[in-house]
Amino acid sequence: MKTGHSGKSNPPPRRAVVFANGLLDRWPAGLRVSPRRDLIVAADGGLRHCAARKIRPHLVVGDLDSADPQEIDALEASGIEILRFPAAKDRTDLELALRAAIDRGASPLLILGALGARGDKTLGNALLLAAPFLAGADARILDGDTEIRCLRGGDTLRLPGRPGDLLSLLPLTATAIGITLKGLTYPLENAVLELGSTRGLSNVLTAQQAQVSLRQGSLLAVLTARNRE
Question: Order of strands across the sheet with 175-182?
């Protein structure tokens, strides 16, 4: 009997592009979506963003109260997977869509249309990045020139950018401990930020990459590109 390595390697995880039902007036610079390479997921009304850009989703998730029933029927008849949930549910359509993408082995998760429609949903979607089920999933909210990611204790995050870009750090726990920053105008070494502190706002990149390390707690890192032509 022959044993040992077969010589075949597992394919890399498939990237997911998840469309939420918020505003998507500003397309992220440089983002290219390919139905052949990406897993495209529409969270209920996020389907309108797919239709506006003629992007065919692989999966539609939610209670579908924001989608046209005839459109849903037509998509299902064409072979697109539809995951229907009751209106009385304890998770948002976006959370359900992200869970579905993770169940299918996708990583990273690029989330579009998550901001701007309503204040409560904007905050809820940003805080969703800190949910335990997304730990290790490399989930990112993209909105025009802005990218939002979550750091958890033990993480080191490298953020590509350009000198002059802005980086803000927003603690999500009572204290975010052991913060070390490199490639920024105001570097930190093993610093502490408290919940509600504005100390971490509007730092400026001095290099092509910023590095953020966190020892304990969690925080949101918000990178905003500036002076793009």
Answer: 156-160, 209-213, 175-182, 191-194
Residue 87: DSSP 8-state: S
Tokens for 154, please give them: 């033990």
What residue ranges of the chain have pLDDT lower than 50?
1-6
| Residues 16 and 106: beta-carbon distance below 8 Å | yes
For residue 127, which of 44, 215, 218 has the smallest C-alpha distance? 218
Residue with tokens 């913060």: 179
Quick one: pLDDT at residue 68?
Answer: 82
Superfamily of domain 16-144: Thiamin pyrophosphokinase, catalytic domain (3.40.50.10240)
The Cα 117–Cα 119 span in angstroms is 7
Superfamily of domain 151-224: Thiamin pyrophosphokinase, thiamin-binding domain (2.60.120.320)
pLDDT at 13: 74
